[in-house]
């Protein structure tokens, strides 16, 4: 709210002075003396690589503690001048911007409650006349709503928004995702622009979580038809990812720092990134060794019984359902026990059981600690059923629930099938041995490279004489050798522009955009030759290899394992589908294997033959 001494006129500067003239605080003195000034930070169009707007920010005298906007805000709060300070910042920014005669939009910060108070107390044409006073077209003015506190009166704000739009001005929502700018506020005011908080943009080139959050925000923006602005872009790697995500606009020190004079162009380093068609390597989900959630588990929709069901009734039920392996005992919709068919029928057939126990509750023969599985259970939880020492779970199966309510039954063989399918699907996304991207991410990245029209090189890496080594030393050392390849490939690739994927077994695919890709590949081969020797025992190292059976069962000598890399350079427009590139890389690998250890570049004439 206003301080209580605020005089409402059509002149914001006079309104502010009417309050600060009698205030003895340090900020009030700065405002009276006009010792504060605006600086302008550019906002970039990430597709056109141009400056499309500036944001006005307030600063104090150079070299003083008042340069910090946070200190100025704290002073405004202490001196009960928050509203007046906001209005002072706006009029100062408009005055300087109008004097600069610069093209493009101007973003000015204002809290929701201050915007409501300013507009509510003035005539309908106030905003247009305010902009005109400083020589600014109102259609180029963007009020950027900053929320230090929650909006007090949402309905009043919505009414004021109509007035703002009627004047031709636009609205932006600042710092979305910082905990104050809410989704409801976005939904209610439908801003033209939403700034994604810098927390989600910082280090987005290496953070899967941030990447996923920005994807989610993009979905919301699509629903509300809002233009997104990525705040806090400070590195070339983050800018490349933001651009490749399709975000239209950005802001940050990499694009340009705040200056008194507005900038006509994006900073040279940012410009070079935006004009370069290299494709960003998106951060992959963190490998945890857990293939996430098991979906579509096979459920047998079987009838259930309650706590009072007799053995005679259950016997009749089993006779009516010949394929039913078990029956769940349910109490008020929630499973409490499980009766195994074979165990029950064997006991029921014993001498005098029917006469003595026929009318007694069937729970006497039930397993009161059945395995209960939710529809969206984690795979590793379900694997515990298969590996449990209690073998009843393999014969009884398990009960399936949805939010704790009985749904049906599952069997061990169905569980094996579901877990296997889930493991295979998970491996297509991330290899469980190396945690590198699997076939699906590899194909998606190739498609992005092809779509971008950039040159790249698809390199297929494979081990020579790996099977004899694996057979001779065992799978544990074999897995370790595969991990050596993975570590070296990751170490020698540029994580921002080069992609490393694990196709499976000892096959790897590297997609290079680095100009020095040949040097990188040669270094991988050389380093592997050294590190792989450490996995052989001393006699094998002395002999230069091992004696082992070949694929035909014949004992012969195999040299120590080496690495071959087949390279297939890809020109823009040469291929249109990821499968074509993968096939070309596989042919290059075949040629590399025939040539022996090292890097083999597939000739272009041969590749196009």
Radius of gyration, rounded? 34 Å
What sort of overall outline do the alpha carbons produce when their principal axes are compared?
Answer: flat
Q: How much helical structure, as a percent, in the residues?
A: 40-55%
Low-pLDDT regions: 287-294, 605-609
CATH architecture of the largest domain: Alpha-Beta Barrel
- Strand elements, count: 21
What structural category do the secondary elements indicate? alpha/beta
- Strands of the widest sheet, in order across it, are 1-2-3-4-5-6-7-8
Taking all residues together, what is the mean pLDDT? Answer: 86
Q: Provide the CATH superfamily of the largest domain.
A: EAL domain
| N- and C-termini, Cα separation | 77 Å
CATH topology of the largest domain: TIM Barrel
- Give the CATH class of the largest domain: Alpha Beta
Major sheet characteristics: 8 strands, mixed, barrel
Q: How many individual domains? A: 3
The percentage of residues in β strands lies in 15-25%
Instruction: Please tally the helical runs, counting DSSP H or I stretches of 4 or more residues.
Output: 25
Question: How would you describe this structure to a colleague?
Answer:
With about 600 residues, the protein is α/β, with parallel strands linked by helices. It has three domains: about 10-275, TIM Barrel (Alpha-Beta Barrel), CATH 3.20.20.450; about 305-420, CBS-domain (Roll); about 430-605, Alpha-Beta Plaits. About 45% of the residues lie in helices and about 20% in strands. It has an eight-stranded mixed β-barrel with strand order 1-2-3-4-5-6-7-8, surrounded by six helices. Strands 16-17-15-20-21 form a five-stranded mixed sheet, with helices on both faces. Strand 7, helix 11 (about 235-245) and strand 8 (about 250) form a beta-alpha-beta unit. Helix 19 (about 440-450) crosses helix 24. The radius of gyration is 34 Å and the shape is flat.
